[in-house]
């Protein structure tokens, strides 16, 4: 690559997103942190290491906010090489029986987890198409592969992401843009740690189902994301890699 890689990470101020942003910065990329809160602080911390970064407050469910973020990225760094669609609702969701999940709760989750990824992708796509190259990595989840109960709205939203990853890869592949996904297992992220109800009900179940019987950490997800964004994965598109310690096998 004859230019500095430019990477957008949504939900990049904490948890898995922050671990991903830190790794790209360490590897020499210019990083755009896009998040509803904490983006500027995260970017400042990354810049303190000597890397290039900007932070943009961005609501991924708002088309105008997504467009403004993409415009700022191009203005700051001149291009967009990789989009990591990491932002989404999960850790604040309470385990609820299917029949008791309200329509409003369904809509909220789908607006962020599905429409949010679609809107951010739509905002960066013209730049990637003009470049004739780009990599999109969609953050999915192991839940739709395993059929996890009591989070039907979340599981459905991530199942939609898996389908979108395949379909978009087919649609825009001729433009030189690859689209892949990463599906983590239950991860001890900052958001999960801040919501003990998740840990109490899901951690033990997750550990029992894994071949690698330890907690999954944000850093465990990073390598797959970096790989899929790199030229090492130049002949891969439309794929979703499950990174869950062996809880699910294709």
From TrEMBL:
Name of the protein = (S)-1-phenylethanol dehydrogenase
The gene that this protein is the product of is: ped_2
Highest taxon of the source? Bacteria
Question: What does the sequence similarity comment in the record state about its family?
Answer: Belongs to the short-chain dehydrogenases/reductases (SDR) family.
| EC number(s) given by UniProt | 1.1.1.311
Query: Per its UniProt record, what InterPro entries does this chain match?
Result: NAD(P)-bd_dom_sf, Sc_DH/Rdtase_CS, SDR_fam
Per UniProt, the keywords (alphabetical) are: Oxidoreductase
CDD domains the record matches: SDR_c
List the PANTHER family hit by this protein, alphabetically. 3-OXOACYL-[ACYL-CARRIER-PROTEIN] REDUCTASE (PTHR42760:SF133), SHORT-CHAIN DEHYDROGENASES/REDUCTASES FAMILY MEMBER (PTHR42760)
GO MF terms, alphabetically ordered: 1-phenylethanol dehydrogenase activity; oxidoreductase activity, acting on the CH-OH group of donors, NAD or NADP as acceptor
Q: Where is the signal peptide?
A: none
An example of a Pfam family matching this protein is: adh_short_C2
Organism, by scientific name, is: Planktotalea frisia
